[in-house]
């Protein structure tokens, strides 16, 4: 009798294990749209109501096919973004994936352009090829660079810094011509860089890198986060004085190619003004 009971328990554990792994695999494809209403008195009138899409950590490669990248592009275009910002780590494990993913990105259709930084994986594979293909496909490189985006007589600043692990970070390239009243968004692939920002001229930052922990304890805590600061920059909307920051769970995965209570996401930001905090919802 004891042997039969042990066999039943063993079979039950196998079934539960298979069910768990199946769910974790399916969750990697269950992309959500994360909506953020970003409100600030510095947002100029012409930009109120404009929509920004942020994506990061696509990791096109053995775990994320070009068909899934193509579907991602379609999802983003359906949102009719005014701006698209990208947070790096476009490929995984092999430089052969770089050209196909950027060939798909050229189908993105924002009104006012695409702005992007490189992540550590892009440096590990082929940063020069990545930059060439970004330029060829009309993507403005924000690694230690910045750009004024203009609508009518109004403008906002989009800037970025190089990857914290594999590049230099030159914030002055973004803030050198900013006034306190200007609205500025900074892209940093690695959210640990937020600890180094010593200016009040940045209104909002966007990061990825952590994948939200990828495998979490019901979205509350993750055993592995690639950050010096543990759970602090794992995921979500943060506030540091007058600066707000969002760390995205990203799109793709690294090994193991699984997610648990940490769905991949497209971040949809709507610009508003005359309030002091941002609010976020998801569906």
Low-pLDDT stretches are 275-283
On the 0-100 scale, what is the average pLDDT? 94
What is the domain tally?
Answer: 1
CATH superfamily: Metallo-dependent phosphatases
Number of helices: 6
CATH topology: Purple Acid Phosphatase, chain A, domain 2
Give the distance, in angstroms, between the N- and C-terminal Cα atoms. Answer: 49 Å
Radius of gyration: 20 Å
CATH architecture label name: 4-Layer Sandwich
Major beta sheet, strand line-up: 5-4-3-2-12-1-13
Summarize the main sheet: 7 strands, mixed
Describe the structure.
This protein is of the alpha/beta class and 283 residues long. It has one domain (31-282): 4-Layer Sandwich (Purple Acid Phosphatase, chain A, domain 2). Helix content is 24%, strand content 23%. It has helices at residues 2-27, 66-78, 98-105, 120-125, 127-136, 172-175, and strands spanning 32-39, 51-55, 83-86, 114-116, 139-141, 146-151, 154-160, 184-187, 204-207, 236-240, 243-247, 265-272, 279-282. The chain has a seven-stranded mixed beta sheet. Strands 6-7-8-9-11-10 form a six-stranded mixed beta sheet. Strand 2 (51-55), helix 2 (66-78) and strand 3 form a beta-alpha-beta unit. Helix 2 runs parallel beside helix 3 and helix 3 runs parallel beside helix 5. The radius of gyration is 20 Å and the shape is globular. The N and C termini lie far apart (49 Å).
Q: Could you name the key traits of this structure?
A:
283 residues; Purple Acid Phosphatase, chain A, domain 2; six-stranded mixed β-sheet; seven-stranded mixed β-sheet; 6 helices; alpha/beta
């Amino acid at each position: 009798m004891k042997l039969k009971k042990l066999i039943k328990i063993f079979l039950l554990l196998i079934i539960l294990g298979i069910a768990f792994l199946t769910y974790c695999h399916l969750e990697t494809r269950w992309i959500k749209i994360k909506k953020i209403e970003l409100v600030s008195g510095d947002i100029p009138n012409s930009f109120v109501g404009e929509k920004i899409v942020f994506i990061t950590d696509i990791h096109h490669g053995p775990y994320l096919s070009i068909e899934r990248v193509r579907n991602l592009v379609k999802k983003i275009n359906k949102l009719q973004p005014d701006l698209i910002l990208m947070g790096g780590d476009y490929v995984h494990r092999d430089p052969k994936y770089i050209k196909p993913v950027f060939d798909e990105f050229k189908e993105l259709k924002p009104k006012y352009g695409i702005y992007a930084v490189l992540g550590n994986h892009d440096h590990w594979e082929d940063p020069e090829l990545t930059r060439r293909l970004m330029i060829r496909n009309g993507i403005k490189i924000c690694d230690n660079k910045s750009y004024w985006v203009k609508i009518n007589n109004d403008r906002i600043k989009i800037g970025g810094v190089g990857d914290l692990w594999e590049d230099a970070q030159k914030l002055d390239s973004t803030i050198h011509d900013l006034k306190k009243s200007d609205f500025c968004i900074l892209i940093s692939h690695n959210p640990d860089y937020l600890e180094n920002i010593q200016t009040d001229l940045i209104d909002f930052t966007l990061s990825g890198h952590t994948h939200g922990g990828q495998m979490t304890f019901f979205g509350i805590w993750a055993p592995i986060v690639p950050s010096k600061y543990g759970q602090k920059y794992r995921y979500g909307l943060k506030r540091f004085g007058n600066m707000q920051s969002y760390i995205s769970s990203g799109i793709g995965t690294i090994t193991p190619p699984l997610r648990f209570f940490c769905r991949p996401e497209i971040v949809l930001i709507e610009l508003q003004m005359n309030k002091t905090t941002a609010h976020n919802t998801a569906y």
